[in-house]
Write a structure and sequence with these properties.
This protein has 306 residues and is of the alpha+beta class. Helix content is 33%, strand content 22%. Helix 1 (18-34) links the parallel strand 1 and strand 2 (38-42). The longest helix is centred in the N-terminal third of the chain and has 17 residues, at 18-34.
Amino acid sequence: MHKFGKVAVLMGGRSGEREVSLKSGSAVLAALQAQGIDAQGFDPRDQPFHDLEQFDRVFINLHGRFGEDGCVQGALEMMQIPYTGSGVMASAIGMDKWRTKLLWRASSIKTPDFELVAKNSDFSAIETRLGLPLFVKPANEGSSIGISKVKQAGGLEAAYNLAAQADPLVIAEKFVNGGEYTVGIIGDATLGFKALPIIRIVPKNEFYDFEAKYLRDDTEYLCPCGLSAEKEALIQKEALEAFRVLGCRGWGRVDFLMDAEGNHYFLEVNTSPGMTDHSLVPMAAKAAGISFEELVVRILELADVG
């Protein structure tokens, strides 16, 4: 474990997901320290970023802007400090749901139909084209911040105004009614990528929002997910391709939806997933026989620059 040197666990930060990041980072920090790794917590909101020069590696547990969007990754590359997760480009694209979808569409990776929404959009026409219900999302936020479900005609404008408070780039997305799932991924192009067992997410409220993700204890996580072995293997293979197309590496999570006919559509990629007691990648790793402590070490081993 001494091969890692001095490790900074980045947590907290300035995004709307600060509290979740603090929980994730604390869990990772405890797991690293329990294995004899010289790890320390580091909150870039409160500590000068150049203090990271004293560390040999960085485990990024920041979520959202200024941590998951390429900003921190670029700074660490300038400082030549190996860090966990995807690089600058993949982090920036993965944070942007619109550009992720554009790349996936160009690569024949299925994703729900979508449209950009602006202040001067014809809201009624978008509702007609995508159909109701539909989802409205800030393109550059995580943890379901600013997301709403439009169920009645005329509701898109209010949903847009809510999402635009979080990000000026807003997308409307066709509703896919057949279940929400996720695929955890770990690895890189050199060592190979591995898809973890698929998890089905069954929230008890309207959809898998911030409350269902972090505050409620009645959200169900099914692993095995209930898909046939053949279907699961196919989706895992396509999820790996969706991950590679964006240039991702290290670890991450690809979310997808199923429709009533059994067709799957990739939703988004998360390049710095949560590591809390409600988080999905540790859950999938456990199902694959990988303990939380082993998982964080594997992720740390994949730390790289550029």
